[in-house]
Amino acid sequence: MKRFHVHLHVDDLARSIGFYSKLFAAEPTRVESDYAKWMLDDPRINFAISTRGTAAGIDHLGFQTDDAAELAELKQRAESADMALFDEGATSCCYARSEKHWVTDPQGIAWEHFHTLGDIPVFGESKKTETAAACCPPAAPRGKPVAIAVKPQSSCC
Protein backbone atom coordinates (compact mmCIF):
# COMPACT_ATOMS: atom_id res chain seq x y z
CA MET A 1 0.00 0.00 0.00
CA LYS A 2 1.28 3.42 -0.88
CA ARG A 3 1.62 6.35 1.50
CA PHE A 4 1.20 9.96 0.33
CA HIS A 5 4.29 12.12 0.96
CA VAL A 6 4.49 15.87 1.51
CA HIS A 7 7.72 17.75 2.25
CA LEU A 8 7.53 21.37 3.42
CA HIS A 9 10.26 23.89 4.07
CA VAL A 10 9.68 25.82 7.32
CA ASP A 11 11.36 28.84 8.88
CA ASP A 12 11.05 27.80 12.54
CA LEU A 13 11.36 24.06 13.12
CA ALA A 14 10.42 24.03 16.83
CA ARG A 15 7.33 26.16 16.27
CA SER A 16 6.29 24.03 13.28
CA ILE A 17 6.80 20.79 15.22
CA GLY A 18 4.52 22.16 17.94
CA PHE A 19 1.88 23.19 15.42
CA TYR A 20 1.85 19.94 13.42
CA SER A 21 2.00 17.76 16.55
CA LYS A 22 -1.20 19.43 17.74
CA LEU A 23 -2.78 19.36 14.27
CA PHE A 24 -2.06 15.64 13.85
CA ALA A 25 -2.55 14.75 17.55
CA ALA A 26 0.77 12.91 17.29
CA GLU A 27 4.44 13.55 17.94
CA PRO A 28 6.91 13.22 15.07
CA THR A 29 8.41 9.76 14.49
CA ARG A 30 11.80 11.37 13.79
CA VAL A 31 13.25 14.72 14.88
CA GLU A 32 16.65 16.12 13.93
CA SER A 33 18.13 19.61 14.27
CA ASP A 34 16.84 20.55 10.79
CA TYR A 35 14.08 18.01 10.10
CA ALA A 36 10.99 16.30 11.48
CA LYS A 37 8.76 13.56 10.07
CA TRP A 38 5.36 12.14 10.96
CA MET A 39 4.37 8.68 9.66
CA LEU A 40 0.61 8.82 10.08
CA ASP A 41 -1.83 5.97 9.44
CA ASP A 42 -5.00 8.07 9.37
CA PRO A 43 -4.62 9.60 6.90
CA ARG A 44 -1.82 7.40 5.56
CA ILE A 45 0.85 10.06 4.98
CA ASN A 46 4.59 10.63 5.34
CA PHE A 47 4.67 14.32 6.28
CA ALA A 48 8.12 15.88 6.56
CA ILE A 49 9.34 19.39 7.34
CA SER A 50 12.83 20.83 7.17
CA THR A 51 14.70 24.11 7.41
CA ARG A 52 16.94 23.31 4.44
CA GLY A 53 14.93 25.18 1.79
CA THR A 54 15.30 28.68 0.46
CA ALA A 55 11.69 29.70 1.10
CA ALA A 56 8.88 28.39 3.28
CA GLY A 57 6.32 26.30 1.42
CA ILE A 58 5.86 23.04 -0.41
CA ASP A 59 9.12 21.54 -1.63
CA HIS A 60 7.74 18.39 -3.24
CA LEU A 61 5.00 15.77 -3.13
CA GLY A 62 5.22 12.05 -3.66
CA PHE A 63 4.36 8.47 -2.91
CA GLN A 64 6.25 6.15 -0.58
CA THR A 65 5.81 2.48 -1.42
CA ASP A 66 5.88 -0.51 0.89
CA ASP A 67 7.90 -2.62 -1.55
CA ALA A 68 9.99 -2.61 -4.72
CA ALA A 69 7.12 -3.96 -6.85
CA GLU A 70 4.93 -0.93 -6.06
CA LEU A 71 7.84 1.37 -6.89
CA ALA A 72 8.34 -0.38 -10.22
CA GLU A 73 4.61 0.06 -10.96
CA LEU A 74 4.82 3.81 -10.30
CA LYS A 75 7.88 4.04 -12.54
CA GLN A 76 6.12 2.17 -15.33
CA ARG A 77 3.10 4.50 -15.07
CA ALA A 78 5.33 7.56 -15.31
CA GLU A 79 7.19 6.15 -18.31
CA SER A 80 3.97 5.17 -20.10
CA ALA A 81 2.59 8.69 -19.58
CA ASP A 82 5.68 10.12 -21.34
CA MET A 83 6.74 12.00 -18.22
CA ALA A 84 10.34 13.15 -17.95
CA LEU A 85 11.72 10.78 -15.34
CA PHE A 86 14.89 11.18 -13.30
CA ASP A 87 15.88 7.77 -11.90
CA GLU A 88 18.00 8.42 -8.85
CA GLY A 89 18.21 4.70 -8.02
CA ALA A 90 19.66 3.81 -4.63
CA THR A 91 20.37 6.97 -2.66
CA SER A 92 20.79 8.22 0.89
CA CYS A 93 19.02 11.42 1.84
CA CYS A 94 16.54 12.90 4.30
CA TYR A 95 17.91 10.61 7.02
CA ALA A 96 17.01 7.48 5.01
CA ARG A 97 18.36 5.04 2.43
CA SER A 98 15.90 4.73 -0.44
CA GLU A 99 15.39 3.62 -4.00
CA LYS A 100 13.70 6.49 -5.86
CA HIS A 101 12.84 8.31 -9.02
CA TRP A 102 11.33 11.73 -9.71
CA VAL A 103 8.83 13.18 -12.17
CA THR A 104 7.77 16.80 -12.61
CA ASP A 105 4.20 17.83 -13.36
CA PRO A 106 3.28 20.40 -16.04
CA GLN A 107 3.37 23.21 -13.42
CA GLY A 108 6.93 22.30 -12.39
CA ILE A 109 6.06 20.56 -9.10
CA ALA A 110 8.37 17.65 -8.33
CA TRP A 111 6.90 14.25 -7.40
CA GLU A 112 9.12 11.76 -5.61
CA HIS A 113 8.36 8.03 -5.83
CA PHE A 114 10.43 6.05 -3.32
CA HIS A 115 10.82 2.88 -1.30
CA THR A 116 12.62 3.38 2.02
CA LEU A 117 15.25 0.76 2.83
CA GLY A 118 16.47 2.03 6.22
CA ASP A 119 17.53 4.98 8.36
CA ILE A 120 20.83 6.88 8.21
CA PRO A 121 22.29 9.27 10.83
CA VAL A 122 22.80 12.30 8.54
CA PHE A 123 20.52 14.30 6.22
CA GLY A 124 22.29 13.38 2.99
CA GLU A 125 25.10 11.15 1.84
CA SER A 126 24.06 10.79 -1.78
CA LYS A 127 26.03 11.47 -4.92
CA LYS A 128 25.39 14.73 -6.76
CA THR A 129 24.62 14.86 -10.46
CA GLU A 130 24.23 17.63 -13.01
CA THR A 131 20.44 17.29 -12.96
CA ALA A 132 19.72 16.90 -9.26
CA ALA A 133 21.41 17.35 -5.93
CA ALA A 134 21.06 14.79 -3.16
CA CYS A 135 17.81 15.17 -1.21
CA CYS A 136 16.45 17.72 -3.64
CA PRO A 137 13.89 17.46 -6.37
CA PRO A 138 15.39 17.64 -9.85
CA ALA A 139 15.17 20.89 -11.77
CA ALA A 140 11.93 21.18 -13.68
CA PRO A 141 11.94 21.40 -17.48
CA ARG A 142 12.77 24.85 -18.88
CA GLY A 143 14.60 25.70 -15.64
CA LYS A 144 11.31 26.37 -13.89
CA PRO A 145 11.61 26.10 -10.09
CA VAL A 146 10.02 23.03 -8.53
CA ALA A 147 8.98 24.50 -5.18
CA ILE A 148 5.67 26.35 -5.07
CA ALA A 149 4.99 29.26 -2.77
CA VAL A 150 2.41 29.24 -0.01
CA LYS A 151 -0.89 30.70 -1.29
CA PRO A 152 -1.94 34.08 0.11
CA GLN A 153 -4.54 34.09 2.89
CA SER A 154 -7.18 35.34 0.44
CA SER A 155 -6.99 32.07 -1.47
CA CYS A 156 -9.76 29.62 -0.64
CA CYS A 157 -8.45 26.30 -1.95
Model description:
With 157 residues, this protein is an alpha+beta fold. It has one domain: 2,3-Dihydroxybiphenyl 1,2-Dioxygenase, domain 1. Helix content is 16%, strand content 40%. The protein contains two helices and nine strands. It has helices at residues 13-24, 68-80, and strands spanning 3-9, 30-32, 35-41, 44-50, 57-65, 85-93, 96-104, 110-119, 148-149. Strands 1, 2, 3, 4, 5, 6, 7, 8 and 9 form a nine-stranded mixed β-sheet that branches. A hairpin with a 2-residue loop joins strand 6 (85-93) and strand 7 (96-104). It is globular. It starts with a strand and ends in an 8-residue tail after the last strand. The model is unreliable at 127-134 and 140-157 (pLDDT under 50).
Give me a quick take on this structure.
With 157 residues, this protein is α+β, with helices and mostly antiparallel strands.
Low-confidence stretches: 127-134, 140-157
Secondary-structure element order, N to C: EHEEEEHEEEE
Specify the oligomeric state. Answer: single chain
General shape: globular
Distance between the termini: 28 Å
CATH topology: 2,3-Dihydroxybiphenyl 1,2-Dioxygenase, domain 1
Helix content: 10-25%
Number of strands: 9
> What characterizes the major β-sheet?
9 strands, mixed
Radius of gyration: 15 Å
User: Which CATH class applies here?
Assistant: Alpha Beta
Provide the domain count: 1
CATH architecture: Roll
Number of helices: 2
According to CATH, the homologous superfamily is: 2,3-Dihydroxybiphenyl 1,2-Dioxygenase, domain 1
Mean pLDDT: 79
Structure classification: alpha+beta
Which percent range describes the beta-strand content? Answer: 35-45%
